[in-house]
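stage 2 :: seqdesign
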């Protein structure tokens, strides 16, 4: 979590993400059987790695995993209506209460560039919570 009570993600096209080592340690879980997202952790250290949305062509990677100085700069915030009571955000980038039209335009543009494909992620173990 950031100082603002947010969880920063970097969204990447699935066709541009590679796990060079440790993929065998990844396992996913859903908050409920009907949940549209899978949370994936590295079971060796219980580190959250990414969120995957059912039918999505992108991964939401936890940005805290990037080494210092290598993390992409954020370009927008979404779902700010979910902020904890009293939390405020700087106005350095757009702070959309929900997913904005610009957000969906970027997702769609990436999907077009991918040829409307849905690349597979590594086979995951499953965690039952």
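stage 2 :: out
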């Amino acid at each position: 979590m950031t100082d603002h009570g947010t969880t920063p993600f970097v969204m990447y096209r699935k066709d541009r993400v590679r796990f060079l080592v440790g993929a065998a340690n990844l396992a996913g879980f859903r908050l409920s059987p009907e949940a549209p997202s899978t949370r994936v952790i590295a079971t060796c250290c219980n580190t959250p790695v990414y969120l995957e949305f059912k039918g999505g062509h992108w991964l939401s990677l936890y940005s805290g995993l990037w080494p210092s100085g290598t993390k992409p700069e954020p370009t927008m915030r979404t779902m700010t209506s979910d902020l904890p009571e009293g939390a405020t955000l700087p106005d350095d980038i757009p702070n959309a209460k929900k997913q904005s039209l610009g957000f969906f335009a970027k997702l769609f543009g990436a999907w077009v560039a991918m040829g409307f494909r849905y690349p597979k992620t590594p086979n995951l173990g499953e965690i039952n919570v």
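stage 3 :: structure notes
- The radius of gyration is 15 Å.
- DSSP finds one helix and six strands in the chain.
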